[in-house]
Amino acid sequence: MSALSLAVRDSATMLRRNLLHARRYPSLTLNLLLTPVMLLLLFVYLFGDTMSAGIAGSGADRSDYIAYVVPGILLMTIGSTVIGAAVSVATDMSEGIVARFRTMAIHRGSVLIGHVIGSVMQSIASVVLVGAIAVAIGFRSTDATALEWLAAFGLLVLFALALTWIAVGMGMASPNAEAASNSAMPLILLPLISSAFIPIDSIPGWFQPIAEYQPFTPAIETLRGLLLGTEIGHNGWLALAWSIALTVLGYRWSTASFKRDPK
Length: 263
Fold this sequence. Notes:
By secondary structure, the chain is an all-alpha fold. It has 13 helices and no strands. Helix 4 packs across helix 8 (146-173) and helix 8 packs parallel to helix 13. The longest helix has 28 residues, at 146-173.
């Protein structure tokens, strides 16, 4: 077999291993998924009328805020779900299974590739589930074309890939699963200080640069524009640049950590 065939075969084996772990221990994924779902329901049903009036004027109803908040919640779902990758990688490192893999005749990169592809698949599945809940409570995207839906899906996959590589790097750098979970918490917190829940203009002036110059805000604005027809402007290029930069950074961090001696 060629080197490429071996890499594909071993990566598929590692992917199957990680998917089996996710199926046998679903509590981690469900717990991470609970945060965006609860925030969606909380902001829509508790704050929805007030937020709609603040965003669209006094004549707006809750449906206006549902449309506004769902793109941010979808990207928050990705940030929440990929924490599972950090925990899974840290568990493998601390329990010694990676050291055992190093002694076997398998492609070295397949261990990380299996984690990354498995996490991206779980992230997209989680986004679909949260999206279904959003539709059930009133979210609609009637003006988006097939091409815009395809672009939105591509953005979600690319952003999930970027955050997964960062999460894998965090997992490799953590001494145990608990530390990995804590170090990956910014992936949930950053959307809270972005344009996910309120427009940037509504944020206090001294805090606006923090909300504006971070990866989630351009990604949210781009997804919002694709699904709802709002202005995207330069956010599309920024979202693409952030996604590529985070993917490269996470990949180099993860592979460099993996090449070092196991913990």
